[in-house]
């Protein structure tokens, strides 16, 4: 019975979505962090999702070569910083202002972050439901013959 | 006279196994709902049923004989039925998972699993009654 693997798959997705929620929280928290140089300014962080591929040894010969091997859940490959242009504001009276009177603000788009947050929490909920259904299925199989 | 489990349980054990396998594939689709470029997959019940029925009528007809321990196994029947879903609406990042569709398919599969389980369970109950002589 490979019902156990559903727990791994849904669990990997839940962990990936919680990393996404964490980066979103970090981005929104730092949305207004002022800085005086381009090196120090905070940049929006985004996780990179990728499907976990099964190794050739597990799937067997035919599935590995005639067909793309099936995947087993999702993983976070890494967290990248956004290349979007920085938010420069002309505030000559600001203590962090540079010689031209500009203050650097992070390239965080708050609207984008909010939609990301909603999407992440919905996906998390979906995977909780998947795990719950798998749990019910597994409990049924344990009652076989009773 | 001995009881052969293969004859007594019939197709229901295989159907239950298929439902578990399909639940795994659908759970994987849902897990990768936000993965760029991921292609949703599904298993074809009809193809699995046909290959299973062929096995019943002519045992070992489609399987290749292993004459050496180093021969690789070719699980062709499972590879044939694992297909890609046709997306109803293409997305920019190449992901073809429709969460609503996948959730519905997953739930329906769980119900079908319950049905297969009921059949299998009643087969076992029948066997128990036969042994007891009720």
UniProtKB/TrEMBL annotation, chain A:
Residues 101-144 form the Flagellar basal-body/hook protein C-terminal domain. Residues 8-33 form the Flagellar basal body rod protein N-terminal domain. Keywords: Bacterial flagellum, Cell projection, Cilium, Flagellum. It is found in: Bacterial flagellum basal body. One of its GO terms (biological process) is bacterial-type flagellum-dependent swarming motility. The keyword Metal-binding does not apply. It comes from the Bacteria. Its main location: other. GO terms for cellular component: bacterial-type flagellum basal body, rod. Pfam families: Flg_bb_rod, Flg_bbr_C. Belongs to the flagella basal body rod proteins family. The basal body constitutes a major portion of the flagellar organelle and consists of four rings (L,P,S, and M) mounted on a central rod. The rod consists of about 26 subunits of FlgG in the distal portion, and FlgB, FlgC and FlgF are thought to build up the proximal portion of the rod with about 6 subunits each. This is Flagellar basal-body rod protein FlgC. It comes from Alkalimarinus sediminis.
TrEMBL record, chain B:
GO terms for cellular component: bacterial-type flagellum basal body, rod. Pfam families: Flg_bb_rod. Residues 11-39 form the Flagellar basal body rod protein N-terminal domain. One of its GO terms (biological process) is bacterial-type flagellum-dependent swarming motility. Coiled coil: none annotated. Keywords: Bacterial flagellum, Cell projection, Cilium, Flagellum. Its main location: other. It is found in: Bacterial flagellum basal body. Belongs to the flagella basal body rod proteins family. The basal body constitutes a major portion of the flagellar organelle and consists of a number of rings mounted on a central rod. Structural component of flagellum, the bacterial motility apparatus. Part of the rod structure of flagellar basal body. NCBIfam families: FlgB (TIGR01396). This is Flagellar basal body rod protein FlgB. The gene is flgB.
């Amino acid at each position: 019975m490979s019902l156990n693997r559903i727990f791994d798959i849904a669990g990997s997705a839940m962990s990936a979505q919680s990393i996404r929620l964490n980066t979103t929280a970090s981005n929104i928290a730092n949305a207004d962090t002022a800085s005086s140089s381009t090196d120090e300014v905070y940049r929006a962080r985004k996780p990179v999702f990728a499907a976990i591929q099964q190794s050739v040894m597990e799937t067997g010969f035919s599935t590995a070569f005639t067909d793309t091997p099936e995947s087993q859940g999702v993983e976070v490959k890494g967290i990248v910083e956004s290349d979007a242009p920085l938010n420069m504001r002309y505030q000559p009276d600001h203590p962090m202002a540079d010689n031209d009177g500009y203050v650097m603000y992070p390239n965080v788009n708050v609207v984008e972050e909010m939609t990301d947050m909603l999407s992440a929490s919905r996906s998390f909920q979906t995977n909780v439901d998947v795990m719950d259904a798998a749990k019910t299925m597994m409990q049924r199989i344990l009652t076989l013959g009773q | 006279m001995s009881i052969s489990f293969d004859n007594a349980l019939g197709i229901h054990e295989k159907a239950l196994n298929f439902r578990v396998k399909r639940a795994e594939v659908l759970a994987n689709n849902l897990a990768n709902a936000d993965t760029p470029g991921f292609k949703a997959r599904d298993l074809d019940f009809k193809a699995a049923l046909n290959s299973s029925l062929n096995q019943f009528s002519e045992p070992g007809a489609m399987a290749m004989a292993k004459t050496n321990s180093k021969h690789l196994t070719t699980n062709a029947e499972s590879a044939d039925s694992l297909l890609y879903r046709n997306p109803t609406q293409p997305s920019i990042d190449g992901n073809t998972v429709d969460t609503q569709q996948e959730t519905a398919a997953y739930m329906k599969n769980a119900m079908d699993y319950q049905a297969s389980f009921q059949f299998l369970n009643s087969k076992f109950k029948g066997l128990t009654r036969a042994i007891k002589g009720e």
